[in-house]
Each structure stands twice: as C-alpha cells, then as structure tokens.
Design brief:
Blueprint: H1 6-12, H2 18-26, E1 30-32, E2 35-36, E3 50-53, E4 56-59, E5 65-70, H3 92-96, E6 100-101, E7 110-116, H4 119-126, E8 134-140, H5 146-154, E9 169-174, E10 177-182, H6 189-196, E11 201-209, E12 212-213, H7 214-217, E13 224-226, H8 229-237
Parallel strand pairs: 7-11
Antiparallel strand pairs: 1-2, 1-3, 3-4, 5-7, 5-13, 6-7, 8-10, 8-11, 9-10, 11-12
Helix pairs in contact: 1-2
Bound molecules: uracil.
Uracil binds near residues 106, 188, 189 and 191.
Length: about 240
C-alpha cells in the first residue's frame, strides 16, 4: 500500500486541513517518534507512530474507539440545544475526525458512553438486531416494590410502541434503586418504562454495554480512554 505523506497522516488524525497540517510541519511544530520533521512530504511508517504536535504526544490510530464516563449536563447530539455537547469533553481533533456517540444517553444520564469514528462499528453496536445488553442503575422516586420489578420483567406498554417492552433482567439494589438490563435503546426507555410501571426515574447511570463495564475502565466522571482490542472483544462478546 502506498505510504501516506506526513501532511495526510496529520489530517487523518484530525489536526486540520492539509494546508494547515503542511504549515504545522514547516513551522517545526511536529515531531515524528521524537524527532522534529519539517518536510511534510516525508512518509513515516504509521505502525506504532507517535506524533508530537504542539508538545503533546499522540499515537497514530487508524480508527478511534473511545469510552467516556459521561457526566450529567451534556448532550449527545452534534448540535446540542440546551447543554454542551459530549464532544467538548474530548480532544478537539477527535471532533474533526467525525467521532460520534454510539447511540445516545439523555443529557441528565451519566455513565458509560462509547464513541467512534468507525461507521461500521457504530452501526453494528447500535443495530437493534445485535441485541447488545445495556445495564443501568436507576434511582427511583418511590420505593422499589416486587410488583414494580415484576412489571418491568414481564413488559410494560409504552404509548408509541406496538408491543410491551420488557427488561432482560431487573433487580432491586437499594430501597430506591434498581439495576435494569435492556437490549433495546428506545428513546428515554428506562425512564418511560419506570413511569409506565407507576414509579419515576430520578437519576440514571449506564454501568455496562455488552461485557464492558464502567468499573473495569476506572474512569472518573468526565474522563475518557481509548478502547483497545481486548475491550472491544468484550463489547462483541456481549
Ligand atoms: N433510558 C433512558 O431513559 N435514558 C437514557 O439516557 C438511556 C436509557
């Protein structure tokens, strides 16, 4: 395969237009594996490549797979209306790479959010046919009762759905807290299911997607990390 020139490599990593990336290189702002390179026509090997741009190191990644511990008060939309976008929590160049959330969490939902610039990955993860289980911790307004858990397990009818939606599993984990696992990702699904079952969701946190849990990643709220092959395999394993 033809090797990419440095300006194209920088562009592919989200550092700006080719023209701007050429200027960055010519201005001595780019180091390749620790050595400043001023010729944008150079063709470094991308495998294991570390680019230093404005004194910050970035390992070359053909595609980005990211996990964010989403805080409340951020919207997953690219054009947010009332709150800042989750993308503002990531390095600026990720936005230029067209990194997008895999599915959406409400602005007040916290927890595990995946993001990527790999369209096939986003599609596969969010496809309803894949039935990727998603686990949530929901804090309820009224105490959790056995009939509530039973209703969520057996299925509740939401007004715009053709058939009742049920949880894959649902357990009480506190007087006003449940752990609920869903395989669909309908709009406000946990909140609407709780409302349809006669309670109200006061706070919602996603704690796992497939076999990948937030605990494994050790991210504080607002922190993000790259997902490596082993973690991506956990997502696929479900
Ligand atoms: N269900 C909801 O109600 N909101 C979310 O953000 C995710 C699942």
């Amino acid at each position: 395969m033809a090797k990419l020139t440095l300006d194209r490599i920088l562009q592919s990593q989200g550092f700006g237009s080719r023209k701007y990336c050429r200027e960055l290189v010519e201005d001595g702002e780019v180091a390749v594996n620790g050595v400043v390179v001023t010729d944008w026509r150079s063709t470094p090997d991308t495998s294991g490549l570390v680019l230093r741009v404005f004194d910050e190191d970035w390992t070359y990644r053909e595609r980005l797979y990211i996990a964010l511990n989403k805080p409340a008060g951020y919207e997953c939309s690219r054009k947010p209306s009332h709150h800042p976008a989750v993308l503002t929590l990531l390095p600026e160049q990720f936005g230029w790479r067209d990194v997008q959330p895999v599915g959406r969490l409400d602005h007040d939902t916290t927890g595990l959010l995946l993001l990527s610039d790999d369209g096939a990955f986003i599609h596969a993860q969010s496809s309803p046919r894949r039935h990727v289980p998603k686990r949530y911790l929901a804090t309820t307004h009224a105490p959790v009762t056995e009939p509530l858990l039973q209703a969520l397990r057996e299925g509740v009818q939401l007004h715009d759905e053709p058939a009742p939606l049920r949880a894959l599993s649902c357990e009480a984990v506190g007087e006003r807290q449940i752990e609920i696992v869903l395989e669909q990702g309908k709009y406000h699904q946990v909140k609407r299911m709780l409302a349809a079952a006669g309670n109200h969701c006061e706070a919602l946190r996603r704690i796992s997607v497939g076999g990948l849990t937030l605990d494994m990643l050790g991210l504080a709220e607002g922190e993000w990390c790259y997902l490596e092959e082993a973690q991506l395999a956990l997502l696929r394993a479900g």
